[in-house]
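Reading group handout, session on sequence-to-structure problems. Before we discuss, look at one worked example. The prompt was deliberately terse, the way you'd type it at a terminal:

> structure endopeptidase La

The input record follows.
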Amino acid sequence: MGRKTNRKRFWGWLVAALLVFCLAVLAFFPTRYYIEYPGGADRVSKFIKVDGKRDKAAGEYRLMTVSVAGPASPIMLLWGKSQPFGDIVSEQDLMGDQTSSEYNTIQNYYIRSAGNAAIAAAFKAADKPIHIDYRGIYVMSMQANSDFRGKLKVGDTITAINGKHYQKAQRYIDAIKKHKVDTKVTVTYLRGKHAHSVTRKLVQIKGLKRAGLGIGLTDDTRVESKPHVKINAGEIGGPSAGLIFALQIYDQVSGTNLRAGRDIAGTGTIDDHGKIGAIGGIDKKVYAASKAGATIFFAPDIPATKTMKREDPSYINNYVEAKNAARKMKTKMKIVPVRKLQDAIQYLQAK
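And the output record:
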């Protein structure tokens, strides 16, 4: 009798241990997937100072964010699917071939770049002078075959090739592609505030019949303005705050108050000429804006080109996607299509 009781206890403990183990796996074991879900709708005025002052006029511009959680456990993935407009994305889709550190570096670059472009676009719209300083080319990624791999890294700014500085990323590309594969070139670059130089061979650029450094790159710019504009978005990253930054800055440097007491939200990349570009996760941003009480939401209205359709057959215009999300939510918030900063300015002036 004692042996049977001990055997039952053993199997009871074993089953209990297996259940605890399975629950621990479900709760804590990380998968290679992340959860994207609606984030906040922050007041833009708290991020921006013009001539050392914040905008205290009635109404608010709101910057929406998409929250990312992960690597997610199986239970977290179930939770993510239950969130309004929640999506599960793979690590590859979210970060590509970047490490977490590189991904965060790029997101920080994007928000800084969006701020610079927003300042330039807002000052131009307000007919105020602005100076753009082209520092060089920002290293966004590294090809596996790059001879500069291990020397250059994501986040560096290349300021000269063979001792010559250029004013645009395309000028650097044009200068480099004149050389043949395996030609040695000297690259001068900034890492933080310190300048360095390195000499290595050019490689074949993936998918192109020309030589290159083997990096993904973009312009690294700084803007100088009077009055001085300072943007500090804290831990927020990404390029999609450009439009809403520009509207906030425009109000302050032009001396107008387009908000007129309203809560206004919007999203979209922006260049220094005020051209607006498409972004991701707009359904989540519509949700966050509506919950925060915004009455107007500016959405990029960028028609799909043949190239865009070829690269992404499932492409949906941001404005259309935003309208669909608003309809699903049954929100009264007005979704307004925009292609340039001036569209948003004129809409607010007219209304």
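Points for discussion. First: The first strand starts at residue 33 and ends at 43. Second: The two ends are 87 Å apart (CA to CA).
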